[in-house]
User: Fold this.
Amino acid sequence: MHRNWLLEKLGFYPARDADDAANRDRIGAFVEEHPRCFERALLIGHITGSGWLMDHTGQRVLLTHHAKLNKWLQLGGHADGDSNVLRVALREAAEESGLNDIIAVSDEIFDLDVHPIPARGGEPEHFHYDVRFLLQATGDDRHVRTDESHELRWFTAAELADFTVGRSVHRMREKWLAHLNGTP
Assistant:
């Protein structure tokens, strides 16, 4: 079953609180219930892969001001049928940043989120079941903006503390700080 890899990763995911556990359980149930969960054509929602992309020093993270959603977010996108969501996160981070040398810090899930995507064009409102990984750029950190974003920007943890971003970005910031401090 092509969903086993993700279901196994979800089983090992250490939820930090009740909301984190709820996201894990909701994504797990969605994956179990929908064999086509990795396909964008599943109109009620689909699995997406994202990356919290640190620079080579680990002291900054690259966010995109998403063109369609008009929000600052981590890099990521649709699985388009690929059940290896880590590979999806790496691919999307490279495509959206123009950075060539990106690695996964771990193959374990860094964060999970379920969020609604507004109706647009012929697509109805639906949910993204977002599986996020901790990634790191290992080379040059000069990025290239694509049509998918209004802007790309490196942020320090301190800059993000006061920056207007969504709750899930602040949650990933806290997990990033814990990672930098060597705490789970």
Remarks:
- The helical segments are 4-12, 18-33, 85-97, 157-161, 167-180.
- The domain at 4-180 is CATH 3.90.79.10 (Nucleoside Triphosphate Pyrophosphohydrolase).
- The chain has a mean pLDDT of 91.
